[in-house]
Amino acid sequence: MLSRLPYRVQIPLGLSLAVVLAALLVTAVAAQIFARTARADTLATVDRAAQLLSAQSLPLLAADDTWRVFALLRNTAAFLPGAATGQARAAVLDSEGRVFASSAPQLLRTAQALLGQTASGQTLPTAVAVTQRMRIDRPDGAIALLEPIRSEDGQALGFTYIEVDAPVFAADWAALTQPALIGVGLAAFLLLPAGWWIGRRMAAPVLSVAHVIEGIGRLDSAVLRQQLPRTKDPELGRISAAVDQLISELHVRQKAERRALSAERMAAVGRITAAVAHEINNPLAGLLTATQTLSVHGGSEETRKRTLDLLKRGLNQIRTTVAALLPQARVEDRALEIDDFADVVTLAHPNLAHRNVQLTTQVEVESAMRVPSGVLRQVMLNMLLNGVSAAEVPGTVHAELRADAERLLFSVAHAGKALTQDALEAIVAAESGDDPRGFGLWVCREIATQYGGGFDVDSRHGQGTRLVFWMPNRETHEELAAD
To answer: Is a pLDDT exceeding 90 seen at residue 267?
Structure first.
């Protein structure tokens, strides 16, 4: 529970708790010392009373003067600890160990045999066994003191007997606890504000370092360095130095990442530019030739018309190619026709002849095709060229175009190395240009996503690979793409 609190709270509470525990420990030790000292003082008082009683009762016992012995006992017992509450008593015994007189006749009756008998659950020694002062410690903490009364010639005339009950030796815990509690209260009252102030001063550098760490990545590194606490404490100094080093390393890393990102962007722009230039240069060469022909033979009406038609088709091809390479752009285009599929097959024939690959086609169009021709021509050409390059040599590539009222599907299958879905994802992710097939297939995936369709590997095809592209067969695709 205490560990969940902040340091500025833990420090004063910890100091107060330490003071309380120390005060309780000191009180317990002091109580033990006081109890032992009080018991020793009580025993010393009992010893002095026994000596006094033995000395003064000797002539009275020799004269057999019971009343004067009784008066002596009454006066002497009054000085015993606990006598006022009936917890201490004294008696003079005769030579046989019987009570001659006592300060408490109701407990120690006159002529009662005491020595050699059981008193308070403990057997007292016989008169013959008591040759010198003897203290008997009882299990409950009470004591009994026996001392022989001897004449000048050493003859035992009797015995002095004193009893002190256990409660007399008990420590006064209430008297000890009250000053201890007062001391604890005063110490806590003084230490709590002092500890709170000390805790705030000790926690302030740590909080400053924590604020600096929270600002890493969001604030300027120079500002963060200025906010680091400057302290002479070695531990906090090491923490500040480590955070400063971390800020420096992150700053260097961020600069390196920005340089790498800039270089990557420039490289990506270069690759895209090269790809677009390659796609545009093919019809552009024919257009330049046509303009030269028009400038030389422009006088003929038939030549001029034929050349203008060629220029128009070439410019349309450039426009659709750019739209296919940059699928984010929206270009108004005519709907796909069967002749577009034939044009794509014609464009792929040089690659087929170079690779010695045969192409088979199948067209099943059950409904009017309402999809843009430009992007579909690019998708079909990319998929065909990819299939030709991946097919076995010699081998066969099969292309299918299907369309119904719901969607249009184009697929390319070959018996070459099988392509898994994970491998396709890796190729599509290689739009950076690391994979030579990545750009074309990435364009296919982007077009499928943009128009609400799909581009995947058909795992049910069996051996080889079958790539499938499909999109809804409708005039407007924005709603599907947004979904």
So the answer is: no
CATH of the domain at 47: 3.30.450.20
End residue of a domain, out of 142, 173, 204:
173
Q: Which residues contact 197 (CB under 8 A, 6 or more apart)?
A: none
Written as one letter, the residue type at 83 is A
Alpha-carbon distance of 53 to 145, in angstroms, equals: 12
What is the distance between the alpha carbons of residues 202 and 382, in angstroms, rounded to a whole number? 69
Number of neighbouring beta carbons within 10 Å of residue 455: 23
Asked if pLDDT for residue 481 goes beyond 60, the answer is no
- Indicate the number of domains in the chain: 2
pLDDT of residue 435: 47
Domain of 394 in residue numbering reads as: 333-482
Alpha carbon of 410 to those of 164, 443, 453, 466, 469: distances in Å? 115, 15, 11, 10, 5
Q: Do the beta carbons of residue 164 and residue 46 sit within 8 Å?
A: yes
Check pLDDT > 50 for residue 433.
no
Q: Which amino acid is at 32?
A: Q
Query: What single string gives the DSSP state of each residue in 417-469?
Result: S---HHHHHHHHT-TTTTSTTHHHHHHHHHHHHHTT-EEEE-GGG-SSEEEEE
Type of residue numbered 367: S
Q: What is the DSSP letter of 73?
A: H
Provide the phi-psi class of 82: left if phi over 0, else alpha when psi is between -120 and 50, else beta: left
- Domain termination site, one of 173, 194, 215: 173
Residue 296 resides in a domain: no
Model confidence, pTM: 0.40
Question: What is d(CA 110, CA 116) in angstroms, rounded to the nearest whole number?
Answer: 16
Highest mean pLDDT pick, 197-206, 276-285, 339-348, 359-368: 359-368
Q: Which residue has the tokens 């302290």?
A: 231
Helix axes 173-215, 7-62, angle to 10 degrees: 170
Strand partners, 135: 145
Alpha carbon 415 to its chain centroid, in Å, reads: 54
- Count CB neighbours of 216 within 10 A: 14
- Dist CA 471 CA 297 (whole Å): 46
- Beta strand segments in 288-372, E: 357-365
